Amino acid sequence: MKRIIISGGGTGGHIYPAIAIANQLKNTLENPEILFVGANNRMEMQKVPQAGYKIIGLDIAGIQRSLSLANTKANLLFPFKLFKSLAAARKIIKEFKPDIAVGVGGYASGPLLFAASRMNVPTLIQEQNSYAGLTNKWLSKSATKICVAYPAMDNFFPKDKLIFTGNPVRSDILDIFSKRKQAQEHFGLDKNKKTILVIGGSLGARTINESIELGLNRLTENNIQVIWQTGKTYHERATKATENYPNIKVFDFINVMDLAYAAADIVLSRAGALSISELCLVAKPAILIPSPNVSEDHQTKNAMALVNNNAALLVADMYAKDFLIGDAIDLLSDSILQEKLSQNIVKLAKPNAAQEIVTQILNIIA
Asked: Does pLDDT of 129 surpass 60?
């Protein structure tokens, strides 16, 4: 029996690829023992058990980059949390005895993979973004293989360790093209109206939400309906704002993303790695609004990988309130541009990413 630890999380962009890898391992191996290691009080502690896997939490958090009294206090505690997490990671590895440790990014992957490499357990890193984070660059020195979602990642990692696999995604979105009628019925949509899907990542996006709220009248006047994922913190406000707009369907979180994509004519989205990978697979015309609040501005770099291939449009976060709604209405009325974006974005898709990553895992532990 093969024993695998998968570590990381923090956002859906880390968690869902990790679950996709675990599911592929179950489909490939006979009764593998899979253990997740995440960070306490982060969303993986809820989402991973919902997917049917055991998870252990480490008391770890990241360095806070913005200056405030609360963040300063948190940063002062960081060395103590790191030391505690390293000790816990060593204990987990000693007791679980994994054949390999897989890191998908996020707070917990640092101490877990570092401890694994020091205890002679082979490690594999899955880097989702086009700009590698500090933790993965640091861990890459001892990693056996590094699976990446973008080409030319030898700027960050040793070239001889790189495998270009793409990002693993949930399997239900691989076939959305036969689900449009079902999707329209599920969301209560009018099949004769154009539909925009708005997704700000698993935690929501304030600028995108405020832009949609400001544009409710224009969207209604143009006979457009919207599936709007707000995130938890904005959900109550959005629900109140749309009381008199039956064409706007508001959700704090969408659990049936396959149906959401199937119903959409275009998508307005942040440019997290998972969102980019899913958009490529579903071949939807998209306007990307990269978050400015991420390390090394990596969402803009993710988005530009599509924009430079004429595979998506981009609106900077600072201009979203002024231009996003107008650009979305223009795109909905331009079928030729929609077709061009769809044709180009699907060329960047990597539908077998989970399978290719599992192949690398099996090659290491064979």
From this structure: yes
Residue 208's identity, in one-letter code, is I
Contact criterion met (CB below 8 Å) for 238 and 214: no
- As a whole number of angstroms, the distance between CA 174 and CA 285 comes to 16
CA distance 335 to 162: 39
Domains of the chain with bracketed CATH: 3-167+351-365 (3.40.50.2000), 172-346 (3.40.50.2000)
Pairing of the two strands 286-288 and 313-314: parallel
Strand partners, 57: 38
Q: What's the mean pLDDT when you consider all of the chain?
A: 91
Taking CA 187 as the corner, what is the angle to CA 272 and CA 185, rounded to the nearest 5 degrees? Answer: 130
- The helix/strand/coil state of 326 is helix
The DSSP bridge partners found for residue 267 are: 197, 286
Statement: residue 62 has pLDDT above 70: no
- Sheet of strand 3-7: strand arrangement: 54-58, 33-39, 3-7, 100-103, 123-127, 145-148, 162-164
In this predicted structure, the answer to whether residue 73 has a pLDDT above a threshold of 60 is no
pTM of the entire predicted model: 0.84
Query: Of 13, 29, 163, 16, nearest to 4 (Cα)?
Result: 29
Residue 255 scores a pLDDT above 70: yes
pLDDT one-digit tens code per residue, 185-214: 999 999 999 999 999 866 668 999 999 999
